[in-house]
Design a protein that fits this description.
The structure holds three protein chains of three kinds. By secondary structure, chain A is mainly alpha-helical. Chain A is built from 19 helices and two strands. Chain B is mainly α. The chains are: A mainly alpha, B mainly alpha, C mainly alpha. Chains A and B meet through strand 1, helix 5 and helix 6 of A and helix 18, helix 19 and helix 21 of B.
């Protein structure tokens, strides 16, 4: 199979799964088997792409012109590879988890759920493999729209309100700011193809670079940089598998991934550094990191706390990009994978607790670790990764970001990372402590006799927790990809 | 070229004109419908042939009755004419297929033949406006299409259709009369009514106040016909109360052809005089266009009746087209022209879908259609697709228009305008999403229990247009290519 | 009789304004249509005036020699013939609508109709 066919397959596989999923709607086992099968195949395809890339092949696929002079095209590069690996790798795991969760929770319209889930993955693949900004934007919007039914899955007035926030902010920023930046780039550079070193270099200079960069960064609402972060907590009304894969991995990572792409391939690090165009982002990302952590501290609802933690962690990636040092950019890339594994574990655990004990508030969870040791054990590993302690993946990425910050004497960034580590510890460690050592209060609910969550769910969260540790012990693959990224952008 | 093809420009207009009396004579509803369909598709065939011919060998002229221009009436076909002809006849073809069930439900059977006769006459007028190269002949076609439109609007079920029609008649006649005054003044100075001839002779007289007055009368007159903000008062009621099929036809074609007339007369004929830049016409146009985009989009958000919301949205969308024209640059003009097509496709799709809803539910009020998505999934999915296009989501035609409008604003150095264009599309998110939420995110009430999906012919025609709004969004090279050529041709005659 | 200078044009303007004013200011739908008619007729006057050439005669070929004969411009007359037809059609349609409105609403006063419509909405 040629590399470009492989790339097309990565995009089409999840879409092709939609038909069978809908057809098998009446037979849940068959339906989920289709999803899992498609997921496994997708992993195989993406791994195939990985080996192609390792051999030095750069697959390119042109779909033809959408607008005169502007093609829709796919092109594989290391950063996209990394994102594709993360999204594809976690899809079947999430399906596995969802089997336990959706059935355990007696959710309605499960067929619709799996179908839109597959479309969302296809959109994420499209984002990862995009060869130019137009293609990326197209898939970015597709991702927003096809996740809307997932966010509003419950159909309650609350879900409807959340859906409005979700759509309003994501569409608003992308059309109002990002599209403007893209068209301006097109008008200035005459191309939108991603190119190492950037396409705007030599075309613009001065404050305009900063303005354009700001339009991009704020326009990519999925990166959840404050003040455009409200959609993420709102999206927590979705079923937990959605929160886990989409709002900890696919959607939010698509956001920071796009920012990294823009930084590296549209502007180029040099252009940004020359015009001091990213300095403000150090402050903005730093503020988001600290402020979101503080908000997270005040949340008693576990999913809400995780959501704010995500906002804060996403800004690590932005911070890594804004520092503009090679090491920190590497760290940012690694953090995409590291945070994905850690945060999906945390969400899985939160959902598992919800299914098993119907508890959503942290204050109710004292002593729960003794009833659900696997779940809360995995939760602990995920939390360690968020804080950035060994032996977890979070340590690796934080190390690189910090090294880059020190190297380029960005003391603000160093201070932010240090402070946020403390804050992360402050909002995660008490949960773990009370889960394992706390005394279960007399909370008048009659689910005291619950045990672990359904087996598929527990299995899934153990896999991702193990992944978090594996990424620490064997980071070669990810480091290689991140290194290759810099090899293209010395 | 074989002999019949030589007369294509005449055929495109004469065939519908001759069919109207035949329909009246036949009287039978099904025969009337069949003829209307046949004529629409025939004119689509003629238009496509004309378009291909223009793209292949460039603009050409046809002399009515063999009388040489400028004395005889010249039919001049360039890229813009052919493009507009194709738009109008394509929309009419789709609507004609759709109209059968809709008309059966909304109009007494003894008046069906009148509806189809007017439909065909309206088509004739619109095509004639697009194809003629004679300014007074254009007025005649304008009145043919307008008079038949008044009748079409007045045939609505609701008695408010009558008042809407009369109001449209009064304002439309005022507009058309303004147009005649403008043409008369221009004729007074030049002694010709042929557009090409006028364009050549006017620059020498550009300094006279007669020519300036002519331009003013023409701008206001055509502005009334194309519902340019703030001259749009007739439009919302007319679209709301017209029979569904007529509303879809009008939404897709009537204002579009008027915009074409604006392009042809104001840019094509008066472009060379330099008055467009000497007088603050483009600035005023730009401000009004922006006002339309914001005011009418905002008004659309609060309308309880969806047809009315879409009618206001139409006024806003005309704003986008006029904004593109106001840039007076190739990209801007091309964006405006391509939006003629794009908006025709998506807005007609929406009106067709609402017509299907009206047929099944009996109302298009937002509180009457809660949960309708479960009952009429195909129709409402078309609404979703066309609605996304209205917002300007990528992979739809709306995105293409918006892209080039913003590009034109940026290359013209007008950052704030670019920002405003995109900001106004956020208002579209509000009024489209309101429909989507009502249709899909509520359980259907008991009064919708027996609602079925619309008849196949209606669903199919709706989806032809909804599909087109995706198809031409996926690959806009064709439409944009034609629009750009048309813009180039137009701009050749415009003094810098 | 010698018509002074721009008399016809002034008349056209006066008719035009009177017509427009009637259309805008009168609430009675029939009066509105009358105004519309006057407005249209003002344009007829305008066109016919511009076709008139001083000392021009009707554009009919005389039996004798043509040299030195000045003809009026016949084209505006022809145009206005068309416009008159359009005007009649418009007025007829408008009056037909008014009749239907009277049947449907029981009144042809714009304000009353508006009240009825607002109550319905």
């Amino acid at each position: 199979m040629t590399p470009s066919t492989l790339m097309l397959l990565a995009l089409l596989l999840p879409l092709l799964a939609v038909g069978p999923i809908l057809l098998a709607g009446r037979y849940p086992n068959l339906r989920e088997a289709v999803s899992l099968g498609a997921g496994a195949l997708l992993i195989a395809v993406v791994l195939g792409l990985r080996s192609q890339l390792a051999d030095g092949v750069v697959p390119v696929l042109n779909f033809g012109e959408m607008l005169p002079g502007l093609t829709l095209r796919l092109e594989l590069e290391p950063l996209g590879m990394l994102f594709a690996l993360v999204a594809a790798g976690l899809w079947p795991v999430t399906i596995l988890y969802a089997i336990g969760y959706m059935r355990g929770h007696h959710e309605k319209n499960q067929t619709r759920f799996y179908a839109f889930f597959a479309i969302a993955i296809a959109a994420a693949m499209g984002i990862a493999l995009s060869g130019n900004m137009l293609t990326l934007f197209v898939f970015y919007e597709v991702l927003t729209i096809c996740t809307f039914p997932l966010v509003t899955h419950a159909g309650t007035p609350e879900a409807k309100r959340a859906g409005r926030t979700y759509l309003g902010i994501l569409i608003g920023t992308s059309i109002g700011l990002q599209l403007l930046a893209i068209i301006a780039t097109w008008a200035l550079a005459g191309t939108l193809d991603f190119a190492p070193g950037g396409i705007l270099a030599g075309k613009v200079s001065g404050p305009l670079v900063g303005v354009l960069f700001a339009l991009y960064v704020f326009g990519i609402g999925k990166a959840a940089l404050m003040p455009f972060h409200r959609w993420l907590p709102a999206a927590m009304v979705a079923p937990t598998p959605v929160s886990a894969l989409l709002h900890a991995v696919a959607v939010v990572k698509a956001g920071v991934f796009t920012v990294l792409k823009v930084t590296l391939y549209i502007f180029g690090i040099d252009l940004l550094a020359e015009n001091a165009a990213a300095d403000w982002l150090v402050w903005a990302a730093g503020f988001t990191i600290v402020a979101a952590s503080v908000v997270a501290l005040s949340k008693d609802n576990l999913k809400a706390r995780l959501a704010y933690s995500t906002i804060s962690q996403l800004s690590y990636v932005l911070l890594g990009a804004a520092i503009l040092a090679p090491l920190s950019v590497m760290g940012a890339a690694i953090h995409i994978a590291a945070h994905a594994l850690g945060k999906i574990t945390l969400f899985f655990a939160a959902g598992a607790v919800m299914v098993a004990s119907h508890k959503t508030e942290i204050s109710q969870m004292a002593g729960i670790g003794r009833k659900m040791p696997w779940t809360m054990g995995a939760f602990a590993i995920g939390a360690l990764s968020m804080i950035g302690l060994p032996p977890t993946a979070g340590f690796v990425s934080k190390w690189y970001v910090l090294s880059g910050a020190l190297q380029s004497q960005q003391m603000v960034a160093v201070a932010v990372v240090t402070l946020s580590t403390l804050l992360n510890a402050a909002y995660f460690l008490p949960i773990i402590h009370s889960a394992f050592f706390g005394r279960a209060g007399d909370d008048h609910d009659h689910h005291h006799d619950h045990g672990e969550a359904p087996l598929p769910s527990v299995l899934a969260l153990c896999v991702t927790a193990a992944g978090t540790i594996v990424l620490f012990v064997l980071p070669d693959q990810v480091l290689a990809l991140a290194g290759a990224l810099l090899g293209r952008n010395p | 070229m074989s002999a019949p093809l030589e007369h294509l420009p005449a055929l495109a207009v004469v065939v519908p004109l001759m069919t109207a009396p035949v329909i009246v004579a036949l009287r039978r509803p099904w025969a009337a419908w069949l003829l209307a369909c046949g004529v629409s598709w025939a004119s689509l065939f003629f238009s496509v042939l004309l378009l291909l011919q223009v793209l292949e060998s460039g603009p050409f002229s046809y002399l009515m009755g063999g009388w040489a221009a400028p004395w005889g009436i010249e039919y001049r076909v360039d890229q813009l004419d052919a493009f507009v002809l194709a738009i109008v006849s394509a929309i009419a073809s789709v609507v004609s297929v759709y109209s059968r069930k809709s008309v059966e439900a909304e109009i007494d059977s003894e008046r069906h033949y009148l509806f189809y006769a007017m439909f065909v006459l309206c088509l004739c007028g619109l095509l004639g406006m697009a194809i003629t190269g004679d300014a007074f002949n254009l007025f005649v076609f304008l009145e043919i299409s307008s008079l038949s439109t008044y009748v079409l609007v007045g045939m609505g079920r609701d008695r408010r259709a009558l008042t809407a029609s009369l109001r449209y008649l009064i304002l439309g006649t005022v507009g058309a009369t303004f147009y005649v005054i403008g043409i008369g003044l221009a004729y007074m100075m030049t002694g010709t009514l042929n557009m090409a001839d006028l364009a050549q002779r006017l620059p020498a007289m550009a300094h006279t106040s007669t020519v300036r007055a002519a331009l003013a009368f023409l701008v206001v007159g055509i502005g009334l016909k194309m519902a340019a903000f703030p001259l749009h008062a007739w439009l919302p009621n007319a679209y709301t109360h017209a029979p569904s099929a007529a509303a879809a036809l009008l939404a897709g074609t009537a204002t579009k052809v008027s915009v074409y007339v604006f392009l042809r007369i104001v840019l094509g004929v008066f472009g060379a005089t330099g008055l467009l830049t000497a007088l603050p016409i483009t600035q005023v146009l730009m401000v009004l266009a922006l006002a339309a985009m914001f005011v009418c989009s905002a008004v659309a958000i609060w309308q309880p009746d969806l047809k009315r919301a879409l009618a206001y949205s139409s006024v806003a969308q005309i704003g986008y087209i006029l904004l593109g024209i106001a840039f007076l640059s190739e990209t801007g003009l091309a964006a405006g022209i391509v939006h003629l097509f794009n908006h025709a496709v998506m807005k007609s799709a929406l009106f067709l879908a609402l017509g299907a809803v009206a047929l099944r539910v009996g109302s298009t009020r937002i509180d009457a259609i809660r949960g309708i998505g479960r009952k009429m999934p195909l129709t409402m999915a078309a609404v979703l697709v066309a609605g996304l296009s209205l917002i300007g989501v990528p992979l739809t035609v709306g995105f293409v228009s918006k892209w080039y409008l913003v590009e034109a604003a940026l290359t013209g150095g007008m950052w704030p305008v670019a920002v405003l264009i995109l900001a106004s599309s956020l208002l579209a998110v509000a009024y489209v999403w309101r429909i989507v939420e009502a249709a899909w995110m509520a359980p259907p009430g008991p009064e919708l229990a027996h609602i079925r999906e619309a008849p196949t012919a209606m669903v199919l025609s709706t989806w032809v247009l909804a599909g087109a709004s995706v198809w031409f969004g996926l690959d806009a090279t064709q439409t944009m290519g034609v629009a750009r050529l048309a813009a180039q041709t137009l701009l050749q005659g415009v003094a810098p | 009789m010698e018509v002074p200078g721009l008399f016809n044009y002034w008349m056209a303007i006066i008719l035009m304004m009177a017509g427009l004013y009637t259309v805008i200011a009168r609430g009675n739908l029939v009066k509105k249509l009358v105004g519309l008619g006057v407005f249209q007729i003002s344009v007829f006057v305008l066109y016919i005036t511009m076709g008139k050439i001083k000392d021009g005669t009707a554009p009919i070929l005389p039996a004798g020699p043509v040299d030195g004969v000045v003809f009026s411009n016949p084209l505006p007359h022809v145009l206005i013939l068309t416009a008159i037809v359009v005007g009649i059609a418009t007025t007829a349609l408008g009056l037909a609508l008014v009749v239907r409105i009277h049947e449907a609403f029981g009144t042809i006063e714009e304000d009353d109709i508006q009240d009825i419509e607002e109550n319905e909405a």
